[in-house]
């Protein structure tokens, strides 16, 4: 993520884009490193309306409030946020483990990192993984709270677990289940370099590769820089093009149903009134917590806006810039995608 400037111009985006049609790549319905065929059906009208009607914006705002504090690795704020995330998920019946390790970082020295890994069914054979990072960037004496980066994505995942609690119960004993990862140490402490960034995701990907666990991941979806109005998203990877197109289709259904969207004249000329664009960004050099998994062959959906928010990595990335209408819109799409994906396995067995 930090290798691409937040000042990406529309001209550059046009140079790097190619349009695609839904399900254009026949191999993009394959999942996991093992290239397993897997297809889902559109949610029925009744299921779509049922899941779409589930919402708890008050809880979403409260979760943001609890996370929206400086949370640099090793600080009390970091510990407080970790305990809040872990406690919230355990209260909802999730199995939560902490992947702990130590590493030496610039400026602050030796630190303990803790990735948070939450599973509905720890014994499942396959997982759809939803992920984000929960640490905030070190900025010396400045109090950086990172609303979009990434308090809001963390809150969205906790909100999903709460809102869908009853419906997710069906996946506590299934072979395909849901996992959430809250990565630690995504941010660089001094300068974005291979050895000073992605501490938690690098270590976890390496661990899971050695253990053979990576083959259990169908898709890893990473959420980052979410919460501000007018985001536009693009597909980055040909092997998950079909799964990205499901996000477009779900947004289409929501738009037809009259859900609120934003349009900004600076970017809406691509596709007005849309978040998810029907284009693939041919250059995939945005480095983020998906990168160590991508390098090991794990299929990725990277949900990050381009261009980046204008306040990226500034103290202006605070509560004042959060647009909860947009945030809830995106949360709905992610929730619907999650249920549509998981229900595909159950439907096949009926």
From TrEMBL:
It comes from the Eukaryota. GO terms for molecular function: glutaminyl-peptide cyclotransferase activity; zinc ion binding. It is found in: Secreted. InterPro entries: M28_QC, Peptidase_M28, QC/QCL. Its main location: secreted. SUPFAM superfamilies: Zn-dependent exopeptidases. Keywords: Acyltransferase, Disulfide bond, Metal-binding, Secreted, Signal, Transferase, Zinc. Belongs to the glutaminyl-peptide cyclotransferase family. This is Glutaminyl-peptide cyclotransferase. It comes from Glossina morsitans morsitans.
């Amino acid at each position: 993520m930090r290798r691409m400037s937040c000042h990406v111009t529309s001209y550059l985006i046009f140079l790097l884009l190619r349009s695609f049609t839904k399900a254009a790549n026949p191999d993009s319905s394959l999942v996991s490193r093992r290239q397993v065929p897997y297809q889902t059906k559109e949610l029925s009208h009744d299921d779509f309306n049922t899941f779409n009607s589930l919402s708890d914006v008050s809880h979403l705002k409260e979760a943001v409030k609890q996370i929206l504090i400086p949370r640099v690795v090793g600080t009390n704020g970091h510990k407080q946020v970790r305990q809040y995330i872990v406690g919230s998920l355990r209260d909802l019946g999730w199995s939560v483990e902490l992947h702990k390790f130590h590493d030496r970082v610039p400026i602050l020295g030796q630190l303990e990192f803790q990735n948070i890994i939450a599973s509905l069914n720890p014994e499942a054979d396959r997982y759809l993984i939803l992920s984000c990072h929960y640490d905030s960037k070190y900025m010396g004496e400045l109090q950086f709270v990172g609303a979009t980066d990434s308090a809001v994505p963390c809150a969205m995942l906790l909100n999903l677990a709460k809102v869908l609690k009853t419906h997710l119960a069906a996946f506590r004993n299934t072979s395909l289940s849901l996992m959430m990862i809250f990565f630690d140490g995504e941010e660089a402490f001094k300068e974005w370099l291979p050895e000073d960034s992605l501490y938690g995701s690098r270590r976890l990907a390496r661990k899971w590769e050695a253990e053979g666990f990576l083959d259990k991941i169908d898709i890893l979806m990473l959420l980052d820089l979410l919460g501000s109005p007018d985001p536009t998203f693009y597909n980055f990877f040909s092997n998950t093009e079909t799964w990205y197109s499901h996000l477009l289709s779900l947004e289409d259904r929501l738009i037809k149903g009259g859900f609120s969207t934003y349009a900004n004249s600076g970017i809406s000329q691509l596709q007005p009134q849309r978040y998810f664009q029907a284009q693939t960004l041919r250059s995939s050099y945005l480095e983020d917590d998906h990168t160590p998994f991508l390098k090991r062959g794990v299929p990725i959906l990277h949900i990050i806006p381009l261009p980046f928010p204008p306040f990226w990595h500034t103290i202006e990335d605070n509560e004042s810039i959060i647009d909860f209408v947009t945030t809830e819109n995106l949360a709905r799409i992610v929730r619907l995608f999650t249920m549509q994906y998981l229900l595909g396995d159950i439907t096949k067995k009926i």
